[in-house]
Structure formats: structure tokens, C-alpha cells
From TrEMBL:
Annotated Non-reducing end beta-L-arabinofuranosidase-like GH127 catalytic domain residues: 9-433
Non-reducing end beta-L-arabinofuranosidase-like GH127 C-terminal domain span: 543-655
The Non-reducing end beta-L-arabinofuranosidase-like GH127 middle domain, residue ranges: 446-540
Keyword entries, A-Z: Hydrolase
GO molecular function: hydrolase activity
SUPFAM superfamilies attached to this UniProt entry: Six-hairpin glycosidases (SSF48208)
Cited Gene3D superfamilies: 1.50.10.10
Recorded superkingdom: Bacteria
Name this polypeptide is given: Glycoside hydrolase family 127 protein
InterPro entries listed in its UniProt record: 6-hairpin_glycosidase_sf (IPR008928), 6hp_glycosidase-like_sf (IPR012341), Beta-AFase-like (IPR049174), Beta-AFase-like_GH127_C (IPR049049), Beta-AFase-like_GH127_cat (IPR012878), Beta-AFase-like_GH127_middle (IPR049046)
Organism encoding this protein: Paenibacillus wenxiniae
Pfam family, one: Glyco_hydro127C
């Protein structure tokens, strides 16, 4: 039997805290929100009167579609996906912590979804309730296949966790309905959804069921995209509806949907950031499953453009609020950007699927960067407040009074009118164990992507073995592995050397091993026995990062990181007007762990200086005679993910250099 990963479990104190927070706080809280039982204020993501924000109504929509209640659909047309992502998070949580009561609740939701499904397998509460005659006729904005994809992903996860066949049956009927309506055959729709997601879901359904049609349908959607530049326009022209499915979408260019070119011809990361990374994640998975080298090469091109020219240091993507989109190379503003939480989650999906194709540490480095910074930064420490947008610089007055910065929140709201991010984060955190390792059977190699305490069980040549990993990340760089096997087993253990590490030290059973790095990994190829211990020390120096000189927003500035974490300055620690602080790059910074601060975080202090605003500036806006005067300032930095959990105030990642 070729090398396989059988199971993975996380016991890491840092990540177990987050996963427990999802189980005990996020899942129950989000259930109350979806049922309109939470006493909260739902905020708009930005100043836009068309955003529905009175309530969620998501579960109520299913009851109406199922015929259990009378009424109208409320909320975004893609509201169903909030329920599906909640269900997927529940599935992963149940796989970690069996919970009879929670499973019964989820089973009831699946029963409700089954009642809302139509006879031919179609499933979408908006179109079933309000406009059944417009099914699949406004795909640029309808999100029908997007929602379908999220249910299929949830059903696959739920079956794997509980072996509940009802959810899987609903998913297969839904996929079969889509297969009956889309394709190149006569009478079928030669098109695709405006928001990618079904493509990724179908690869997962294929993996579970082995049904080749599902992989072929995924490949059809991928390769059809961008081949007919008139498809969305023709659907709009033929649509008999009297109102928009989503207001304000008709002006969007094809780049917004990644439909401006066939996927093999796309060279740059374009359009809505979440859509792009969902597309790329699907491309990478389909390339892996179908051994499609042309598609893999297209993935590499899009990856390289995105991470080398269009990604923030925190792993955020999306430079503008207009379309939640990419703009141009090196256009990375810090205070008007978007950096949606979902976009970084999608980037993690893309990175992991690339790791399945090729063992290159650059993918794991980006996965780790997005995970430790933007992804978990999207949630408050209480598990009940969330960021949709993850800025790198904030001034409360600007967010309040500048219409162009209404999307840049100073504190995390309790919920959003467009609530895609909270349940998306919940399903990522509960499935984190899936991202720690990848296996490459032909190499008989286990690749370590993340350093997270836990156990993983593998099978090779009809023999099982286990790796016990102990990690002190993100605060210290000490990692150890212990092998457990009934008999000696020959395989390669590949250890990632992160981009942030100093010169690493490596021992096997106490003996030093030379560190030879290949594509970012150290390969330990040997016959392993029970009790073998591998220790890896990754020095965690405080690092000063500079941006490419063409990133105008960061020219003359630096950012601070230690290990996988990027740090920021907050007004709470440094006073107002953070832009008046400048740092001397040669000054020595000091690190210490503060167990009492923000649930326990590492802090960095640095001798800096602050410009004084002297009396000569009173009632003066511009001056040709004023002189600059600075006083010493002890700059205190905290991990970026932990900002906005205290008194609201300014925040800044990039600091001026003296």
C-alpha cells in the first residue's frame, strides 16, 4: 500500500484554544445568529444602503423554502452558504469532540435542507421562494452554484465525521442536478457561476465517492470559464426578471469574475480576491487529481504574481474596496485595502492544494503567514466578534468620517449583513489538522507544513506508524518529533525550514545532522524505529522587513516580525498619532512573553523617537520655518492578530524609518 495519511490530531495549546473557542463559543453563537435569536447589532461591511442587515433569517429561509412556514426570503441571495459553512464547522468539530446534542442539532438542519431541496435535486432558498423561473438564468450574480458548492463541501465533511448518508445523498442529488443542466451537450448551459466554489466542492465529492462524473464536471467548469466573453451579457439580455438579483453588479467587468480569459491564459491575479483564490484552489486540486500539467502551470503563474507582487505582509489579499479586488502590481495601500478574512482563508486552500502537487516550502510559508496573521486576526479573542476587512493601518476618525474608509473597522462587529467570514473561519480552524502534513507516496515522504503539537498516523506497505510532534510555536522555535512503529519503517521525513528562521540546528537521537535544504525542506531519509527522536531548533530572531521599492505605501518604512507573526503598534501602548513615531533600524529590540496580556502574547519593545508638535504649529497648517523635534519613545509592539481587543484606537504595521 502506498504511503497514506490516516489521521491527524492537534493537541497544541495555541491552536487547541482556538478550536475549543469555535466549539464552545462560535458554533453556538453563530447558531443563535442564524436563527435570529442573538441580541446583537448586525453591521454593514461598508456604507452601502443595499446591504441587508436587519437580521440573518438564514434558517427561516430554509423553513419557508421547505413549506414549513409562509413568508419571503430575506438577506443576500447567497445567505444559504452561511448555514452550510456552519454545518461544515460542526462536522469538523464533531470529528474532534463527539457531541450527541450538537450532532442531533446538525441532523435536524440536514433534514430541513432535505425538505427544501426540490424534486430534481435543485437547492437554493432564494430562487425556490421568490423566483423559480430564474433558476440558472442570471449566473453572474445568482451564486446558485456557489451555494451548492458550500453545501457539497459541508456534506462531504459531515459524512466523513459522522457517516450521515442523508447529507451526502442530498449533495449527490444536487451535483447530479447541476450535471444535468451544465455542459457542452445540446440543450445544456454552456456557462458557469459568477463566484467560483462549485469547482472545488466537486473535486472533494469525487474524492469521497469515486464518481468520475464529478471530477469531469469540475474540469468542465474550470475550462469553460472565460472562453465565451458574451455569456454573462447574453444571460442578462435574455433575463425576464424585473429586479436585480444583487444590486450594483451589472457594471462589473469580466476580470472581476476571472472570466476575461480562459484559465490557461490568465497571467495575473485579477478581480474579486475571494473568487480568484477559490478558483485557484480548485485548479490546483483538479490538476492534482487529473494529473493536468497545463493547469498546474497556470496555477504557478497566478501564484507567483499574487505572492510576489499583490500580497500583504500579513498574508492579506485584495487592495481595494471596489469589488473587494486586486488592482495592479505593488499597489498595496495599508489604510484603504480590503484584505477580506475569506480571501486569506481561500489563499490557505490554494497553498495547501499546491503542496499536494509539489513539495515546495514557499506554499507552506504563505499558508502559515496567512493563518497566523490575517485569518485568526479576523476573530476577536472572545470568538463572538469578527473582522470582514483586515487593515494594516487604522485611524478611528478616518474610518468614521471618510466614506472611502467606511469598510475599515476599528473594532470587530458582532456580525455582518454579508456574513461569509465568521463561519468560514470556524470551518478553517476546526479542520486545521488537515493542513499539518502532506504525503508524497512516490517519494515515500511525509512533508511537515506546519509546526503544531499533535499526533498523526500513517500507513505504508500495510504497516502503520505514528509521528508525535511537539512544537513551541508561535512563541519559540523548538520542535521535536518522536516515531512510533511496531517494526522498522523506511520513509523520508521532510522538515520545513521557514522563511523567518535563522540558522537551524537538527539532531536525530541526539546526534547532529547537517541541514541541507531542498525547496525549503530538510529531507531525512532513513529506516525509522520506535523511539527515534528528531529535534529541530528554528532560531526566532526579531526581523525587520522592507517592502519592494515599488510598493509606494511602504517606501521608507519597515515592519517587524518574529517567527510566523507580524507585529503592530497600537494606540493603547504607544499613544495617539502613531505616524509621528520613527524607528532607528540599528537599535536593539527586545522580546518577552506576557502571559497576562491579550490571553498571553509575545511583545517586542524598541527604542524609537516621536516627533513633538510644538507651539509653532498652533493655528498653522503649512510652514517653511518650522523645525522637527524628536523625543525618545519606547515603542511597544503586539502580534497583529491580537489587535483591536482592547480600547479602540489607532493601529499601524508599517513604521517610519529614521
Amino acid at each position: 500500500m502506498p504511503l497514506q495519511l490516516q489521521s491527524s490530531h492537534i493537541t497544541d495549546s495555541f491552536w487547541s484554544h482556538y478550536r475549543e473557542l469555535v466549539r464552545t463559543e462560535m458554533i453556538p453563537y453563530q447558531w443563535d445568529v442564524l436563527n435570529d435569536k442573538a441580541d446583537i447589532v448586525i453591521e454593514k461591511e461598508r456604507n452601502d444602503d443595499t446591504i441587508p442587515s436587519e437580521k440573518s433569517h438564514a434558517i427561516e429561509n430554509f423553513k419557508i423554502a421547505a413549506g414549513l412556514k409562509k413568508g419571503h426570503h430575506y438577506g443576500w441571495v447567497f445567505q444559504d452558504s452561511d448555514v452550510y459553512k456552519w454545518l461544515e464547522a460542526v462536522a469538523y468539530s464533531l470529528s474532534i469532540h463527539p457531541d450527541t446534542q450538537l450532532q442531533e442539532l446538525a441532523d435536524g438542519v440536514i433534514d430541513l435542507i432535505g425538505l427544501a431541496q426540490e424534486q430534481d435535486g435543485y437547492l437554493n432558498t432564494y430562487f425556490s421562494i421568490e423566483e423559480p423561473e430564474r433558476r440558472f438564468k442570471k449566473l453572474a450574480e445568482s451564486h446558485e452554484l456557489y451555494c451548492a458548492g458550500h453545501f457539497i463541501e459541508a456534506a462531504v465533511a459531515y459524512y466523513e465525521a459522522t457517516h450521515n448518508e442523508k447529507a451526502l445523498t442530498i449533495a449527490c442529488r444536487l451535483a447530479d442536478c447541476i450535471d444535468a443542466h451544465f455542459g457542452k451537450e445540446e440543450g445544456k448551459i454552456r456557462g458557469y457561476d459568477g463566484h467560483e466554489e462549485i469547482e472545488l466542492a466537486l473535486t472533494k465529492l469525487y474524492n469521497l465517492t469515486g464518481e468520475q462524473r464529478y471530477l469531469e464536471l469540475s474540469l468542465y467548469f474550470l475550462y469553460e470559464r472565460g472562453t465565451d466573453p458574451t455569456f454573462f451579457a447574453r444571460q442578462r439580455a435574455e433575463d425576464k426578471g424585473t429586479k436585480a438579483v444583487i444590486e450594483g453588479m451589472s457594471h462589473r467587468q469580466l476580470k472581476y469574475y476571472q472570466a476575461h480569459l480562459p484559465i490557461l491564459e490568465q497571467e495575473t491575479a485579477e478581480g474579486h480576491a475571494v473568487r480568484l483564490v477559490y478558483l485557484c484552489a480548485a485548479m490546483a486540486d483538479a490538476a492534482y487529481l487529473a494529473n493536468d500539467q497545463a493547469m498546474l502551470e497556470a496555477c504557478r503563474r497566478l501564484w507567483n504574481n499574487m505572492v510576489s507582487k499583490r500580497m500583504y505582509i500579513t498574508g492579506g489579499i485584495g487592495s481595494t474596496v471596489d469589488g473587494e479586488a486586486f488592482t495592479t502590481d505593488y499597489d498595496l495601500p495599508n489604510d484603504t485595502m480590503y484584505c477580506e478574512t475569506c480571501a486569506s482563508i481561500g489563499l490557505i486552500f490554494f497553498a495547501f492544494n499546491m503542496l499536494k502537487n509539489e513539495a515546495k516550502a514557499q506554499y507552506a510559508d504563505v499558508l502559515e503567514r496567512a493563518l497566523y496573521n490575517t485569518a485568526i486576526g479576523g476573530m476577536a479573542l472572545d470568538g463572538k466578534h469578527f473582522f470582514y476587512v483586515n487593515p494594516l493601518e487604522v485611524r478611528p476618525d478616518s474610518s468614521l468620517h471618510d466614506p472611502g474608509k467606511s469598510h475599515v473597522k476599528v473594532t470587530r462587529p458582532a456580525w455582518f449583513g454579508c456574513a461569509c467570514c465568521p463561519p468560514n473561519l470556524a470551518r478553517l480552524l476546526t479542520s486545521l489538522h488537515k493542513y499539518v502534513y502532506t504525503v508524497h507516496p512516490q517519494q515515500r515522504a511525509v512533508y511537515t507544513n506546519l509546526y503544531v503539537t499533535g499526533t498523526a498516523k500513517f500507513e505504508l506497505d500495510n504497516q502503520s506508524f505514528q509521528l508525535q510532534q511537539n512544537s513551541e510555536l508561535p512563541w519559540e522555535g523548538n520542535v521535536a518529533f518522536e516515531v512510533h512503529a511496531d517494526q522498522p519503517v523506511a520513509f523520508t521525513l521532510a522538515l520545513r525550514i521557514p522563511y523567518w528562521s535563522g540558522e537551524p540546528a537538527l539532531t536525530v537521537n541526539g546526534e547532529a545532522v547537517p541541514v541541507t535544504v531542498q525547496e525549503g525542506f530538510v529531507l531525512l531519509d532513513r529506516t525509522w524505529q520506535t523511539g527515534d527522536i528528531i529535534k529541530l531548533t528554528l532560531p526566532m530572531d526579531i526581523r525587520q522587513y522592507s517592502a519592494h521599492p515599488l510598493v509606494r505605501s511602504d517606501w521608507g518604512k519597515l515592519a517587524i516580525g518574529r517567527g510566523p507573526l507580524i507585529y503592530c503598534a497600537e494606540q493603547e501602548d504607544n499613544g495617539a498619532y502613531l505616524h509621528l513615531i520613527r524607528v532607528q533600524p540599528h537599535q536593539q529590540a527586545t522580546y518577552r512573553f506576557d502571559s497576562e496580556l491579550l490571553g498571553g502574547v509575545g511583545t517586542i519593545e524598541w527604542t524609537a523617537e516621536r516627533q513633538q508638535i510644538k507651539a509653532e504649529w498652533d493655528h498653522v497648517l503649512y510652514s517653511s520655518v518650522a523645525t522637527e523635534s524628536y523625543v525618545p519613545h519606547t515603542l511597544k509592539l503586539i502580534p497583529y492578530y491580537s489587535w483591536a481587543n482592547r480600547t479602540p484606537g489607532e493601529m499601524q504595521v508599517w513604521l517610519h524609518k529614521a
